[in-house]
Amino acid sequence: MSSILIIGGSDAGISAALRIKELQPRASVTMLVADAYPNYSICGLPFYLSGEVPDWHQLAHRTLEEIQSAGVTVQLNTRAVEIHPKAHTVVTLSDDWGKGTLDYDRLVIATGSEPVCPPIRGIDERGVFLLHSMGDSFAVAEFLRRHQPRRALIIGAGYIGLEMADALTHRGLAVTLVEQQNTVLPTVDAPMGTVLGHTLATQGIDVRTGVKIDQIEQTGHSLRVLGTLTFDQEVDMVLVVVGVQPVTSLFKQTGLRLGVRGAIPVNRAMATELPDVYAAGDCVETYHRILGTDTYLPLGTTAHKQGRTAGENVVGGTAQFAGTLGTQVVKLFELAVARTGLRDHEAKAAGYAPKTVQCETWDHKAYYPGAQSLTFRITGDTRTGQLLGAQILGHWQASVAKRADLFAMALYHSMTISELMAVDLSYTPPLGSPWDAVQMAAHQWLSEAGKPTD
After folding, report:
1. In angstroms, rounded to a whole number, what is the distance separating the alpha carbons of residues 345 and 253?
2. N or C: less crowded end of the chain, CB within 10 Å?
3. pLDDT tens for residues 51-89?
4. Could you read off the pLDDT of 270-327 as tens digits, one per residue?
5. Nearest to 175 by CA among 185, 187, 186, 167
6. What percent of the chain has pLDDT over 90?
7. Is the confidence at residue 163, as pLDDT, over 70?
8. Strand locations in 85-188, DSSP E?
9. 450 secondary structure, DSSP code
10. Helices 300-314 and 11-23 meet at what angle, rounded to 10?
11. Does domain 3-40+53-113+244-314 have CATH number 3.50.50.60?
């Protein structure tokens, strides 16, 4: 009977464990979880802190009992501190029983990511939080309960920063959002970032772009935050959410090379360069389906797929990770913004001849009540007409996410923008148009970009 050890109990680790048990129910699967919260939705933390999800237990994709009932042995509050590939052993450190050693026939590393800690003086002051784990979330929740802060400052206007600005505003705090780039959500084009910034401002959020925070200092019961462009503000709490980096110290100590942004190199079967060792999730490089190369794109959806691939292959399968397109969506107050594929500058760097076209259209027939405007930015290759990427902004109930998914499906199959026009999509006036909004955006690109040339 195979003995399989999984380091990490979040999306990738759980997906690997469950796939193994599906294929080989008698396999011995042990999973090490560094904290007490296996398979919790980190993406759901802003909605717990806003109060929209009142009970943190609801964030569990599966309960511990459900995981164990699948036949997986779970060791909570246990970290792997050393891997010995030749001996096929892992040294562990448990909060309950100290050091130990586990043997494995095959190993899956799914250690995930951790917050980037920027070089800001005073980042360890009381009332300053890096938000990423369940423990981080509980610390923020306790601070909110005990100290009843009135003013919060968020450093970083990416997905989590925006969601936390929404969450804390929902709780009644006055929020300042600081971003080093010139617009919020730098992962979408500036015109969309600008609209999002205006939306934040209409909700009473003080948006400061082009500002780099240098220092945080305690002043009585408050925090004074200092930055470039003479930024100087006094608040009650600070959240630092400027991105994540892979947790790879275990792999690094084996002496093997690390890849993009220090992530673990894997092939599309999720195998590492070590014998019988696989890796998946936020700790690994990710194959990009359009670029045809490896990048670092830590996403929960990707982690699930990679974990399933690794789980299948550790028991003798031949699964291949199909690759990422970087498909993402975020809800901000009444708006949603989504992207998939490449933006113009990314496509240029990859050797394409891109053109990005922006247009606006209705989510369904305008004569039916409740029609919402959607803004599209479509990127295609002017030489071949191939779709390269899409961005969508609109009301969160206007199927922004699902329309982005339609573009993602087209990108997955390397479709041209003309082919997207030919797809047979559903229509009824309350939900769409004879030419769906996606196809109207595609038509606009074809009108402006002209006929593809060789």
Report:
1. 36
2. C
3. 888 888 888 888 899 999 999 999 999 999 999 999 999
4. 999 999 999 999 999 999 999 999 999 999 999 999 999 999 999 999 999 999 999 9
5. 167
6. 88
7. yes
8. 89-94, 98-103, 106-109, 113-115, 128-130, 151-155, 174-179
9. -
10. 30
11. yes
Determine the 3-state secondary structure of 307 from DSSP. Answer: helix
**At residue 377, does pLDDT exceed 50?**
yes
Asked if 35 and 133 touch (Cβ cutoff 8 Å), the reply is yes
Give the Cα separation of 184 and 200 in Å (integer): 10
Residues of the chain with CATH 3.50.50.60: 3-40+53-113+244-314, 128-240, 328-449
3-state helix/strand/coil string of 250-280:
HHHCCCCCCCHHHCECCCCCCECCCCCEEEC
Lookup: tokens for 445: 């690109």
Mean pLDDT over the full length of the chain: 94
pTM of the model: 0.94
CA 384/CA 396 separation, integer angstroms: 33
Superfamily of domain 328-449, CATH level 4:
FAD/NAD(P)-binding domain (3.50.50.60)
Q: Where are the beta strands (DSSP E) in 148-274?
A: 151-155, 174-179, 206-209, 213-219, 222-227, 231-235, 237-240, 244-246
Which tokens in the block code for residue 234?
Answer: 């006094």
Tell the CATH superfamily of the 128-240 domain.
Answer: FAD/NAD(P)-binding domain (3.50.50.60)
Confidence of residue 191 (pLDDT cuts 50, 70, 90): very high
